[in-house]
Amino acid sequence: MVQENKSLEIERNIGDFAYPETHTHDAGIGLTEKTIHYISDVKQDPDWVREFRLKAYRTFLSKPMPTHWASRDLEAIVFDNIRYYLSGGIQPKRTWEEVPDDVKRTFERLGIPEQERKFLAGVEAQFDSEAVYSNIKKAVGEQGVIFVGSADGLKEHPEIFRKWFGKVIPTGDNKFSALNSAVFSGGSFIYVPPGVKVKHPLQAYFRINAENFGQFERTLIICDEGSELTYMEGCTAPKFNTATLHSAVVELVAMKGAKIQYITVQNWSNNVFNLVTKRGLAHEEAEVKWIDCNIGSRLTMKYPGVVMKGRKARGEVISIALAGDGQHQDTGAKMVHAADETTSNIISKSISIGTGRATYRGLVHVPKHLKNCKNNTECDALLINSHSRTDTYPAITVRGTGNAVQHEASVSQVSAEQIFYMQQRGLSKAQAMSLSVNGFVNDLVRQFPMEYSVELKRLIELEMEGSVG
Amino acid sequence: MSNPSALLEEIAETALAPGRILGGGAARNEDLPAWFREQQSAAWTEFQTLPMPALKDQAWRFSNVQALDLAPYTLPVSLSDRAERDLLERSTELSEIAGRLVFADDHFLERDVLSEKLRAAGVIFQPLERAMIEHEDLFRRHFMTQPATLGSAKFAALHQALVRSGTFLYVPRGIEVELPLETFHWLHSENVAIFPHTLLVAEEFSKVTLVEHFRSADRSRAGFSCGVNDLVVGPGAKVNYVCTQDWSDRALGIQINATTVARDASAFNLYLNLGGKFSRLESLSRLIGEGGRSDMLAVSVGDGAQEFDARTLQDHACAHTYSDLLFKNALYDRARTTFGGLIRVEPHAHFTDAYQKVRNLLLSDDAEANSMPGLEILADNVKCSHGATSGQLDEEQMFYLLARGISAAVARELLVGGFLTEVLERLPAPALIVRLEELIADKFARRSR
Questions:
Q1: Is residue B187 part of a domain?
Q2: Could you tell me if B387 lies within 8 Å of chain A, comparing CB atoms?
Q3: Model confidence over A66-80: pLDDT tens digits?
Q4: Do residues B269 and B400 share a domain?
């Protein structure tokens, strides 16, 4: 076992992520203290990390499920039936022929390269991106940027990462953040030194490997004073996954004047519970922006948050949710104002198709004696079919004078007149619908990097096709 | 009705011997019919079974649940003649009315009779305890039929177990009562608990306005009011319901409202909240017939350490229905409000129009406003929107008034008054608007003293 880990170490150093495709490390099914020890052993965690995991495990056991408002669907999760750690050929072996036709068709329509398709469908354990990754790592490395996996980060740079690890999102924040803290593996640790502006967006994509698409990834990004970073995770293609629970924790720390933009495109397959905790800490004049797009999964519960801790800090959440048949996208944002002159902005657009259900859940908190805090929240929902459902549950607390908070939400349909107009001009009903829906989210989609926004548009077209009949 | 015993003692007794306390309860209500007392005993059991609200309950999120300690309160005893005379004298709000009922510490004091014409037309306006005997079928058909779903099921059960008087108003088909009817509920003795009940049934195409006044005899006395009002609005009927709540600032108030709106009917609710240490309003509007319309309005002015807690549900159970909610709060000192509202459009309730707006005006650094405007849409072709804002007085408007030589205090009062009047002006009864504005002005005057 030790030997294998050594070989992994070497491979990591040269940026090569070719794990042997055997289940060399399998923590088995179910979760006990033994599982935690097993993971710690395999990952050769420092002692404090092992302790951290064990403590988190006990917190996980003591925390109740979020029952008083959460969807009943959560009860379908059986923690004892889940495999918490698997490395070395983590992806189940499958041949291209076994991949369902609709997934193949989606790849075709989205224009995804052949090589990527195989990876995304789970046919291959890795995507051959080492070259790209090495180049990027080299480029940013020269600027002093640290871009490593979570386990490496804690092992190699504890002086940087330990200070903030688990500080933005404490273990006991909720049951699933505790679960992640106990069994985390994979994810990225990034440190950007003062004043460094990373030109190209860093992508989890570059580090694609078996572990990175794991169920319990943990990401911590620290941008030191005046630095800037854009990070992207996920991709528009459906990730064909047989795991049923995905529970990540993402912590962002923006020091004075730093800017972090975190872009997520989530398109898990329709059997996945996606329960993610994401929060950013913005110091003085810093800016944290979440751009979040949820298309896949069976149930997503994700409310990216920003704690504005320093004067003039700024938080922003841009959220797009598409809930198709049988899906529930429970998304939203949390904005905690903790200093004067902080501003936050939430813009959320959701589309419910077929029996899909889109929920916006938000929290805005302006405590006492703060001056000139501003929040703006806009939620728009679009209902496509008569069985579609949409909900909005904001919670806004404002104390004291000198702050301005506004929340607005609306629910509407695709205008029959618009559809009629487009059909008059020779578009089919489905084309007209997808054009109209794309128009609804267009101003948000444009905020994504170009290649993503193009793929997103295609994906919406695709989703709309079957929805009108 | 023997000695006043603390509710809590009574609860303890009940726990020991269920029959006995209900014996106690029954002794209190011995003149009420047996079937009613049976319902009360069932409600008492329910009250005991249900848990007290906790902050963790979504329906009580942000509420100060500690305020709900019922230990200090006692059941009412009879009033002295002098107190009765005094309260009767003070029971005038509107100059022109069609009828008036006055209650103090849950005792029915007086009724100003309806005109002969209205009585001949079949309008019933009488205390609950008489209605349940004289109009048993009608009463039983509508009494406490809407379950309290917005968090206070326990208090609804307590209300049903201990209610002994209240208002029964019945307007037959096609009858329009032009002048408003008026009721008064007084909290008189220190730490008294009262259970005001109002049951309003408006039959097809009838029209009626009911104005209720909740008052404390002495602004320095504590008390507890746990009220339920049910409005049943029949097809094509129009009901205006106005409640002015001005308890003492030491009182605890819980009001549970349910309004059912049938086809082409229109219900109009307005709550003016001025008093109370902690007052909670749970208001449910259920739209069950096409063309139904419900307007839900509230104005709250809080100061000191007052807390107003409002939970609302606009429940669209039928297609082609309309609801509009507007709640405005003006908050001084350490006042606190919580608004939890939901628009629910049930499956098949297509072509619904539903709106919900809450506006908070924070006038002090210690004031706090919590807003939870919610939407649950399960139908298609709906028009729904909600909005929540929290802000302060417009500095430019203040400057404008100050520049014209108006003192800051008066200017502030004018602007707050203007902010609140937008809600009152929706009321389709001009004379009432004037009276409500006067009540708000009284509160301002009390503040400046």
A1: yes
A2: yes
A3: 766 677 788 878 888
A4: no
